Amino acid sequence: MKKILLLLLFPLSLTAQKNIGDQLKQFMTGQHEYFNFNGNILAAINGKPFYQESFGYADFNTKRLLNDSTVFELASVSKQFTAMGIIICKEKGLLSYEDKVKKYLPNFPYENITIRQLLTHSSGIPDYEQQFKKNWDHKKIAGNKDVLDVLINVNDTLAFKPGSKWEYSNTGYAMLALIIEKVTEKSYNDFLAANIFKPLGMRHTFVYNTRRTTGKIPDNYALGFGWSDSLKKYILPDEDPKADFVYYLDGIAGDGCVNSTTTDLLKWENALQASTLVSKASTNEMLSPLVQMNAGDTTNYYGFGVMVQPHTSNGKIVSHTGGWPGYNTYLLNRDKKKETLIVLSNNEKVSGQIRATLESILNGEEIIMPYNHKEVKIDSSLIDKYVGKYSAFLTLVFIKKDGKLYRHRDGTADIELKPESDTKFFYGDGTDRQIEFIVDPDGKVTKGWFINTGQKGELKKIQ
């Protein structure tokens, strides 16, 4: 497949940037060739890209290729744009973060929930996706007003007292989009275009929640595909009965439905760092660790539309992920080295482990690059000494069935481990995972290695 590569070098740390760029290229090329990554990636330092590449198809059916201007659905990465919309409204004097939601949406069925609590996922309001699954005609396409109507009609109890804890809420961001429309008397789509996208020169960024109502697909658009085990090919989620919600939830925006490119997202990141759209104080608050995401965890917080790790070896890290049938997205900023990483996939291939390995590469850490794993025949008697329970950052159990080695976990299907040598095995499910056993001269296992998407962790046999 044709790939588009942009590799730019800058005066500071030229050698380091080139080495990291080369490693990112090698890793992502391997993920594409051997593990089916399809999408776009951009890495930048000081606001300027030093690695940018496209891998694979914008449309698996027509074989139309991706390029650096291809537009992707951002899914939940959209939330930071909704948050910025609210911040702009606040700076215009149209609302306050402490205002009750009912001030702007009088029929909203819950008392004492504030705009701030919607922004930080601390409201406790119910998940609209579950409500629509049970209480909506799946042949009709819903919009944000329908989300409010269903909240009113179903009137489920809150998950917790507003402000008392954190729980991720798509519903809250759908309500924020309605509040923007209420106070500005403009559509959410038009307001973001006029106040964010156009001022920043994000020429390929827009709210797109009309695909199923109009049937129109924008130019140079990355259609999202998922793998079908039964058909052995990538298909649109519209063809998957289990993903029927992509149709009836298609008109809802605020929690998702911003669409953009890697290049435009870098413009957005640069604008955040420079406080281009709003005051420095407002930007700082947006990117601050405002609410602890899990009790007892002092490393992960939520700001306004972004996840924040305030104290790491790489300084403050601000990031967000997005997921929707056919799409995985990732946007990361690390302030210590002024690094930005953007990964957009239209075949659901931005796993947590890929994200972790990309960060390891940015850190200059050694990883095992992806390669083509080929099965070989080994004496089945060798399998017996590898059977057992092993411990690393998780517990792995290996069993023998029909002369073969399998990874076993209660409640899930066993995964065959295919030998590529007498001591090394790769996962037979197509993921980038391997197990390597270390044996002494007598053939006894002394330890093992679990290699997950290039990152290597020691395994100790405990049983």
Helix % is 25-40%
The main sheet comes to: 9 strands, antiparallel
Which spans of ≥5 residues are poorly predicted at pLDDT below 50?
1-12
Q: Separation of termini?
A: 46 Å
The spatial strand order of the largest sheet comes to: 1-3-2-16-15-14-13-12-11
User: Remind me, CATH topology of the largest domain?
Assistant: Beta-lactamase
Strand content: 25-35%
Structural class determined from secondary elements? alpha+beta
Report the CATH superfamily of the largest domain. DD-peptidase/beta-lactamase superfamily
Number of helical regions: 13
Architecture (CATH level 2) name of the largest domain: 3-Layer(aba) Sandwich
Query: What's the CATH first level of the largest domain?
Result: Alpha Beta
Number of strands: 24
Number of domains: 2
| Average pLDDT | 95
Backbone shape: globular
How would you briefly describe this protein structure?
This protein is an alpha+beta fold and 463 residues long.
Provide a descriptive summary of the structure in words.
It is a single chain. The protein is of the alpha+beta class and 463 residues long. It has two domains: 73-362, DD-peptidase/beta-lactamase superfamily (Beta-lactamase); 380-461, Lipocalin, CATH 2.40.128. 27% of the residues lie in helices and 25% in strands. The protein contains 13 helices and 24 strands. The strands form five sheets. The chain has a nine-stranded antiparallel beta sheet, sandwiched between helices. Strand 8 (226-228) and strand 9 form a beta hairpin. Helix 2 runs parallel beside helix 6 (170-184), helix 2 crosses helix 7 (188-197) and helix 4 (128-135) crosses helix 5 (144-154). It is globular and about 75 Å long. The two termini are 46 Å apart. Residues 1-12 have low confidence and may be disordered.
